[in-house]
Amino acid sequence: MTISPFAPARFPTLPPLAGFTMATAEAGVKYKGRTDLWVLRGQPGTQVAGVFTKNKCPGAPVDWSREALSAHTEGPRIVVVNSGTANVFAGQAGRDAVAETAKGAADVFGSDVGSIHLASTGVIGVALEASKLVDQFPNMTLDGDGWEAAARAIMTTDTHPKGATATAKIGNTTVTINGIAKGSGMIAPDMATMLAYVATDAKLSQNVLQDLLDADVGPTFNSITVDSDTSTSDTLLLLASGAAEHSEISDTSDAALTDFRRALHDVLFDLSQQIVKDGEGISKFVTIKVSGAVSDASAHKIGMSVANSPLVKTAIAGEDANWGRIVMAVGKAGEPADRDTLSIWIGPHVLAEGGQLATSYKEEYGASYMKQDEIVIRLDLGLGEGTATVYTCDLTHSYIDINADYRS
Amino acid sequence: MTISPFAPARFPTLPPLAGFTMATAEAGVKYKGRTDLWVLRGQPGTQVAGVFTKNKCPGAPVDWSREALSAHTEGPRIVVVNSGTANVFAGQAGRDAVAETAKGAADVFGSDVGSIHLASTGVIGVALEASKLVDQFPNMTLDGDGWEAAARAIMTTDTHPKGATATAKIGNTTVTINGIAKGSGMIAPDMATMLAYVATDAKLSQNVLQDLLDADVGPTFNSITVDSDTSTSDTLLLLASGAAEHSEISDTSDAALTDFRRALHDVLFDLSQQIVKDGEGISKFVTIKVSGAVSDASAHKIGMSVANSPLVKTAIAGEDANWGRIVMAVGKAGEPADRDTLSIWIGPHVLAEGGQLATSYKEEYGASYMKQDEIVIRLDLGLGEGTATVYTCDLTHSYIDINADYRS
């Protein structure tokens, strides 16, 4: 598989995080000769926040993990993730597999089933063989180092492992945030995307953790799209071990959170960008900045309409500054728009304004600009103050290759 | 260009229609060595009904033709259609081109500008050079035969001309309905699709004509999608010359319309099917039948969510009966759905039921069925009485080829 041209040169250095240990294994769920199982342990007292797919046909692991989020326990929190099957639409066998995996993990890692957070990613419609995971648990020695190995174990069509890290000051204490994510196709998160796990040693109450996550998922994971297809497995968990020295923060409006908020955004943004930049078949990374819409929500919908248009995406793949298709995609969004107040830029060039091609625009500007790997399209609706930025990739032959025979 | 494997063996025989004459010409708007201009004349008294794109950034010809629909006139109705440029998002130059074309047509063909119905199809963002059309008008000799030539003149990425005809009894009089259409990409009609012209010699009032059209556009043109991209130019006109012998019908509930309604549906359905079966890059024609939804509207949205899913479409291209992606697309539609009451069939085979793969299903059933050219996917939501049927095609390498360099 060709590595995405937008892959980072190397996996970032994610330091061990106080309160967390982990391990990976080769469970052989589907793939051979690679790891496909990750277990993360958060020490007793670890708080967990999460957001999940809004797809109406979620996988059994999503149902389970939604409930686990509110489970109260004194034991450690255990996260178990496998790749190879998504264990979605697998009926009673899928639900049994989830229960069996949770029981196995609770027994081996010394917790209770209500504290087990599960996720599976891969083919839909095939039940997980839980015994393959459970059999591995006793062989897994959890320790503090292993974020890159974890990021590799949860990959499916990803061309590289994805990780990010940041530090923040809470009072005089420096805390760390580590995150890993996977995802490449079926990416149009409507809550969170595919699988992402972010952990910190900060000492935060569950409500603060959930508030911080909810506030930042909009401009990060919910603003990327590869193919408009919202996964049945999207899961984003944020775990806080509380191992850091500062006193617990239990009020989201606490000023001590300012720097942490910034660092959390950096990690979430970085991970979500890595996902879209590893979009199936990507040759161009595209940023779409919308302003002048009647509201931020309207701007987001218009941006997504452009980002998901097959005709816009194929034009970009063909290095064609096809403003006509952008106009079409703005107009089909179902949001207030006026052809005659709409302005469009590609990179530094005004492409269209006043309902027509800009008089200053020359085809050679577009032809030259579109050869770049990273394309910025800016739209101003000229109607109001609403803004949004969304991120996508082009639609290429490789997307067809990957998805016309992914199962085989 | 490869002809769609679903193209009819030959263009149907469309008889001359009393009250209508027409001609085509080579105006050289963009294409060389082929016709690109069609003029249709409906005798004085001809009634016209129409539906247009709901895209918020419509072309200048759409704006013009919307107004012309309500223009009252004693003169003949003149329809002027060109291919090569859509004259959309071309600002004042585009509006001027529309006015100039209408004036030229009115002068040459002996009508008034308010009776000229215009449409342009092709590249967006380039103004029509009206003089190219106007210069041809004096050379065009309108006569009664020429439907196939007309269907050819309005083609863009279409691989074959599209026409349909039917007859109906109104009282003791036999009337004829002829229709032509064009369209292949940017097809997700939200009212009508691209360009379609249907004409009859029946004697119907304008309100009856519009009622009949509005009633039938839902299950025909509004139920097809190639790529989810709603064109800025969608136009469907229905013209009635009134040359037939029966007395005028001015009440939509008149029982004498029963057979005409059936025949009109046959023509609209046939044309819309020809468009989706000539979808850009098509290798498989796909019918999606939805039942058991909470309402017909909900069933339609769910059907369209499946029909527009890039992952479903690429799986079909790969001859993969990938029920998991179908489940995903049902769940992402935003409509009421329940994984555990959802049933899915491909052709005669129950694929999934009760929230899992059907126990009777074998992979070889799907493998064998998916090799067919025409695929039927049936979904039952198990929630209510809502039904809908939508039509689409698969997503192939050819779609990328066509659209990554359509402008060049």
Word description of this protein:
Chain A is of the alpha+beta class and 408 residues long. Chain A has 2 domains: 20-277, L-amino peptidase D-ALA esterase/amidase (4-Layer Sandwich), CATH 3.60.70; 285-404, ArgJ beta chain, C-terminal domain (Ubiquitin-like (UB roll), Roll), CATH 3.10.20. The first copy, chain A, has 11 helices and 15 strands. Chain A has helices at residues 60-69, 91-109, 130-134, 147-153, 206-217, 258-277, 296-308, 310-317, 323-331, 363-369, 397-404; strands spanning 20-25, 37-42, 47-52, 77-85, 116-123, 162-170, 173-182, 195-200, 235-240, 285-293, 343-346, 349-353, 356-357, 374-380, 386-393. In chain A, strands 13-12-11-14-10-15 form a 6-stranded mixed beta sheet, with helices on both faces. In chain A, helix 5 links the parallel strand 8 (195-200) and strand 9 (235-240). The longest helix of chain A has 20 residues, at 258-277. The two termini of chain A are 15 Å apart. Chains A and B meet through helix 2, helix 8, helix 9, strand 13 and helix 11 of A and helix 2, helix 8, helix 9, strand 13 and helix 11 of B. Chains A, B: Belongs to the ArgJ family. Chains A, B: Keywords: Acyltransferase, Amino-acid biosynthesis, Arginine biosynthesis, Autocatalytic cleavage, Cytoplasm, Multifunctional enzyme, Transferase. Chains A, B: Substrate binds at residues 156, 182, 193, 280, 403, 408. Chains A, B: The record marks 121-122 as: Involved in the stabilization of negative charge on the oxyanion by the formation of the oxyanion hole. Chains A, B: Heterotetramer of two alpha and two beta chains.
